[in-house]
Amino acid sequence: MEFLRSNLSRVQIPEPTHRIYKHECCLSFDTPRSEGGLFVDMNSFLAFGKDYVAWNHEKTGNPVYLHIKDTPKSVPEDRPLKKPTLLAIGVDGGFDNNETEYEESYSIVILPDFVSLPFPSVELPEKVRIAVDTVLSAVGAERREQVAAWAAEEKKASEHALTLQQLKSGIVIPPSGWKCAKCDKKENLWLNLTDGMILCGRKNWDGTGGNNHAVEHYKETSYPLAVKLGTITADLEAADVYSYPEDDSVLDPLLAQHLAHFGIDFSSMQKTEMTTAERELDQNTNFDWNRIQESGKELVPVFGPGYTGLVNLGNSCYLAATMQILFSTHSFISRYFSHQSLKLAFEMAPADPTLDLNMQLTKLGHGLLSGKYSIPVTEKDAATAEARQEGIPPRMFKSVVATGHGEFSSMRQQDALDFFLHLLDKVERGNNTRPDLDPSRSFKFGVEEKILCSSGKVSYNKRDDCILSLNIPLQEATNKDELEAFNNQKAGKGLEENNMSTDDIVRPRVPLEACLATFASPEQIHDYYSTALKGKTTAIKTTGLTSFPDYLVLHMRKFVMDAGWVPKKLDVYIDVPDVIDISHMRSKGLQPGEELLPDAVPEEVMETAQPVANEEIVAQLVSMGFNQLHCQKAAINTSNVGVEEATNWLFSHMDDPDIDAPISHQASDVDQSSVDTLISFGFAEEVARKALKASGGDIEKATDWIFNNPNASVSDMDVSSSSSAQTPAQTGLPDGGGRYKLFGIVSHMGTSTHCGHYVAHILKEGRWVIFNDSKVGISTDPPKDMGYLYFFQRLEN
């Protein structure tokens, strides 16, 4: 006690601005439920497990700690389950998941001798008592981001319902036997509540659904509300009412009155159709979902080093799937596990290790690879319970890696590809003083684009990349006869795929080799400005790789536009072999006899860098129902390449906080630090500024803009020749042979990369293992033909 009194200056009373950690160790995944409990530094309010608290004492000299220990409560086996009042988990009124309840105990511990003083106790100094009470009553920093509550989004009453004018047409709607007034559709029918017209709904992404007659009727008449026939029952709030002006499902408080106008007695009607929300939910239980998760199969759980699951923090499966694969690579294992101890990372970390990416990557690496947390959970009834592990929650890692990124710091689902690229960028920046230790370089390779002008002269543009993004050439499907027979059968019977058994549906099978060949095949560039001809012409672009990375990542582009400009996700299989050879994709550089295009670029070409959207692309997007401003932004941010690219951009950025902000043309909007970053990439300042203006200040988009607009930057690109080209060794990129072995797959289920679920399959110790958040088991049927991202490791010799 005297020692405690003599160190009261080391005890702080927390202020509201302090970040207080009391649920998880900053260096490990130890919690108050761990064997040694958790120790909270009463000066910094950082928490440490028993094996690590002495390191903090050595580093800071802080001797006073609050020890928190949770012990399980004894619960009667016949405890009744609470009835949920909210569609949520882990919140008051939510589902009771029957988890073990714990009782917390506290004490004051003095280091270095771990002398323990009881708490609460009147004998403790008042400052200590106040400080501890404040810590215990505060919300822990680990839980501030958001509780993972899966609360259903409530529909709002439509602003058009109370003022709806209904025409006195004398139409009486029968209780069944409906059909679209403009086609033969008998399902997905909507009753317009103004004039009583029955019309079919929108065409879905996959071509199923209706023929858009209901929405076209709204555009002709501006009659705002429609109700989906087959969803009307005595529970009127469950009926699917859609407001076209509000572009959302809504509530109609006067629905009973509006239905009675057409002679509909809602109390006697039966539910025969899914609501819009139910159909969206049903899409998450389709064939892809079951196949990729290997649902219904007896998965044997696996435990030990390298087999640790990751707890889903709420739509964080994109992070879990990506990190499981990254920590299966030698580069990440070496950098953050085998060659870096937790103590070393802590000693190098700043005062708050929770904010240090190197520390949190090391913590995550040791958590996943040590095996410490990959142990079976002790069940009450071991004879019947399924063996499982709790997994580790990557909260601190997610927080630090998402800093400054509006989407990744949210609880919304994200694109695993976007996260992979974001993480590699963060890792590269974090290792900029020691590039030899940078694990992200094992994914990097050089790309060389050769542009052959009609004058016969050429230019070579080089860049670095971390992924090969591949289009899927459906015309190269190997089962064309089966597809044709299936489509004829489907058309003959008038069937829709969403009403067919998944086992009966025939999907195209495209070889991966065909996707790689498409990437490397010549591509025409129209309206290319030739500095040799001093005018626009058609050029031929071919793409190759200047180096082959240690790990090759292939991204399958499954979102496309069909012939009717309807966006859809390709329902396709990709036949991926276990071993591929891309040796033929190596670029050859400037060849004897080739002459480089002149460097001069006229000022009028440079001026085309202003962010102006292609009117034709915008018009086509607007005709599909998208907002005019959003369409302009999509065209600009995809460099006016085409409707498909713009549509993909729209689907990926619909939830951006600045999506409705006006398009800025001001030069002052260009951030100097962004300009400096592009200059460090080798681009001239003038081109960097124009690219940033055209890309809204986004560095990644600006880089893409430069490479997609060679006319505006020919003089500033890396124009190579046989004498000046750098070798991969000179640029620091890894290189080797072109043979690769498949070792990891990230699969996606859902209609968009921003919804649904991600799962990883990884080849470990000669067997495929599924990592589905916290579930880890031996895979019996890895979905090699259904991947979104494929990870390959280069084979030596």
TrEMBL record:
InterPro entries according to UniProt: Papain-like_cys_pep_sf, Peptidase_C19_UCH, Ub_carboxyl-term_hydrolase, UBA, UBA-like_sf, Ubiquitinyl_hydrolase, UBP13_Znf-UBP_var, USP
Keyword Repeat recorded: yes
UniProt cross-references to PROSITE patterns, sorted A to Z: UBA (PS50030), USP_1 (PS00972), USP_2 (PS00973), USP_3 (PS50235), ZF_UBP (PS50271)
Every UBA domain range: 612-653, 669-709
EC number of the protein: 3.4.19.12
Catalytic activity, reaction form: Thiol-dependent hydrolysis of ester, thioester, amide, peptide and isopeptide bonds formed by the C-terminal Gly of ubiquitin (a 76-residue protein attached to proteins as an intracellular targeting signal)
Domain USP as annotated: residue spans: 308-795
Keywords noted in UniProt: Hydrolase, Metal-binding, Protease, Repeat, Thiol protease, Ubl conjugation pathway, Zinc, Zinc-finger
UBP-type domain ranges (all copies): 156-266
Family: Belongs to the peptidase C19 family.
Function: Recognizes and hydrolyzes the peptide bond at the C-terminal Gly of ubiquitin. Involved in the processing of poly-ubiquitin precursors as well as that of ubiquitinated proteins.
Descriptive protein name: Ubiquitin carboxyl-terminal hydrolase
Organism per entry: Brassica rapa subsp. trilocularis
Lineage: Eukaryota, Viridiplantae, Streptophyta, Embryophyta, Tracheophyta
Annotated gene: A05p037790.1_BraROA
